[in-house]
Structures are given as structure tokens and as C-alpha cells.
Amino acid sequence: MEVRSAILRRSEAPIPYAESRPIQIEKVTLDPPGYEEVLVKIKAASLCHSDLSVIDGTRPRPLPMALGHEASGIVEKVGDGVTDLQPGDHVVCIFVPSCGDCLPCREGRPALCEKGAKTNKAGTLLNGGIRIHSNNEPIYHHIGVSAFSEYTVVSRHSLIKVDKDISFEELALFGCAIITGVGAVVNTAQFKLGQTVAVVGLCGVGLSAMLGAIAAGASQIVAVDINEEKLKFAKELGATHTFNLTSPDVVEQIRNELNGGVDIAFETAGVVSALEVAYNITKRGGKTVTTGLPHPESKFSFPYVSLTTEEKTLKGSYIGSSVPHRDIPNFIQLYKQGRLPVNKLMAKFISLDEINEGFDELAKGNYSRIIIRM
């Protein structure tokens, strides 16, 4: 079938993207779903820094590529081997498919699926196939989803069946921002009631982590960013303290205000300087957790002795160390109960044709989440 899709054919184009137009909306050919694959009609897809990092070259990926990964939609057709989904089901897309057979999957850590990581990097679906073409030219899949499209074909293992009583715009957020941010709090950091928390970088993931910490019962929540509007928004969401990351003595300010630092500091910006601040505001015996995705050559250094003498922990968190089939339904229930107000993160709605302008806004840090309505 022919579908309209957002295709990136070159990375590192100059900003503003509204002028350089690195993403083109093209008509491409989408193959039918193969074995254990599903054709999904995309209803809503969010713009995320993981997409932006491919556009600006921070995360090198094979090109041309059909972008998009944080999305929701309706099952249109299922391929052979798919027995637990049927046309009409509502689904959330997950950007790390889990094979179920590798050691991390068998250990209950699907976020670290070895096959999923390999095929995501290669730009294919979990089985190694490519289902998008343009004049017989293969178009690579973005982390197994390619959601900036009217329709997409994905592995069954990239989908979570969800309730039908939530809007697609809200559901889309659960596939990346929510599962990564909230998951980092409850799974990676193993947050305990009453602990103090800082979030450095108020992107969609950072704000989700903040909402997760509030829901989990943090006693004090510190929001840190370079954007004053985002700091103001964080205060409205429930942050007890806000600090501008550009302040030369921001570490001292936070340590003085929080009696030596916080129990857990989350870094979500993917910037080395932000991780340095997060580590330095983590108190003795505390944890620093990063969800950031910097350029593969970025390096981070810290006083080696602090790991021992201060008993600090520095830990990475990918897709919130989550088990998507368990966590997404649970997080949706928290939202329904009013304990996880993810709808407040929806800041702007655009069309597929406005995608370059949307990424300009995301690059400026102007909105928490920009959502494409298909």
C-alpha cells in the first residue's frame, strides 16, 4: 500500500529546519505485515529528542530513514503468528522490541534485549526485515517503529495492547516519555517513599520523571533547566524548588538548600554538563540516574574516590528499566486515577506536514511534548 511518511534523507542539516527541510513527507510503499508483524494505523505520534538526535547527527543511524517512535494507533491487520491482537485493537508502540529468547529477556530485563538493540541500530524490524520502500529503494525503520506515517508495519513485540477509553494523543506519551521517565523512578532508582529528588533537564522524559516522583511520594522535588518557562511549568506541576542550570554556582545553591544534596538525581538532557551537575548534587550515599542519549563519543569524568568515600551510585536507565507489558498498563491506571497527570505534558498539536517546524520548536526547548495528529 502507498502511505505518506516522514523521511529523513540527510542528517546534520542547519537549523532552522523550517528552511533546510531535512524531513520530507513522501509517498512510500509499505509492505504487508510478515510473520509476527502488525499493520498499524497511526493516530498520534509525539516529537521526541530521540528523533531529533537522528536529525542532528547526535545518534548516527542508517539513512534514508522513516522517523518516529512515540506513538499510538489502531491495529489494521495482523500477520501470521500473531494470535493475541486483532483489527480494531488500540495499541501503544514501544521502541525496544524484546525477542524473549536472549539472556536479558529471560532475566526479565526486556529493555536490554540484545536482538532488539542490534536490529534497532541496523534500522530493521526485529526479524531483520525492511517493510518500507521508495522506488525499490529500502527505507530504514526508526527503532522498529517509524511512526511519523499514516500507517506502519511493526513487530508484534513492539506493541502493547491498551484500553480504548483514553485518547490516542494521551496514549502516545506512554510509549517513550512516560515509560522512560516514570520507569527510571520506580524501576531503575527503586525510589523509596519520602526521598528527595532532582531532575536535571525538563524535557518530556524529565517532566515524566518528576510526575513519577510526585506520584511515588517524594518529599522534595528539585527541577533544573536552562529554560525559565519550563522551570515555571515544573513549579506548576509540583516541583518544590527550581534552579537555572546556567547559574555558575547552581551546584552550591542546591546543596545548600537541600542539606548536602538529594537522595536521587535524574539527568535526562543527554548533555555531559547536565550529568556533571546531577552527580554533584547527589548527596552522600545517593544515586545519580541518567536516561540521556548523548553522542556515542561523549565522555563523562568524575572523582573516582567519591564512589567509595561517599558511597554514591551512578546508573544508566534505558526505557526506564521497564517491562512494558507490565508497566504501561499500570501507568495508565495511575493516570486514570488522577495520580499521574500526563495530559498536562501535551503542549502543542501539529499536522504531519508541519513536522520540520515542530522539530525547530523542540530544539529550542519551547514545549514539553508536541504531538502530530494523523
Number of domains: 2
Q: Any idea what the shape is?
A: globular
Any idea of the CATH topology of the largest domain? Quinone Oxidoreductase, Chain A, domain 1
Q: What radius of gyration results from the CA coordinates?
A: 20 Å
CATH superfamily of the largest domain: Medium-chain alcohol dehydrogenases, catalytic domain
Number of E-type strands: 18
Low-confidence stretches: none
CATH class of the largest domain: Alpha Beta
Key structural traits:
12 helices; globular; single chain; 6-stranded parallel sheet; 374 residues; 7-stranded mixed sheet; 18 strands; 2 domains; Rossmann fold; Quinone Oxidoreductase, Chain A, domain 1; alpha/beta; 30% helix
Describe the structure.
The protein has helices spanning 17-20, 49-55, 103-106, 114-122, 168-188, 204-216, 228-237, 250-257, 272-280, 304-309, 324-336, 355-364, and strands spanning 2-8, 23-30, 37-47, 65-66, 70-78, 90-93, 132-134, 137-141, 151-155, 159-162, 196-200, 220-225, 241-244, 262-267, 282-290, 313-316, 346-350, 369-373. It is of the alpha/beta class and 374 residues long. α7 (228-237) links the parallel β12 (220-225) and β13 (241-244). The radius of gyration is 20 Å and the shape is globular. The model has no long low-confidence stretch (mean pLDDT 96).
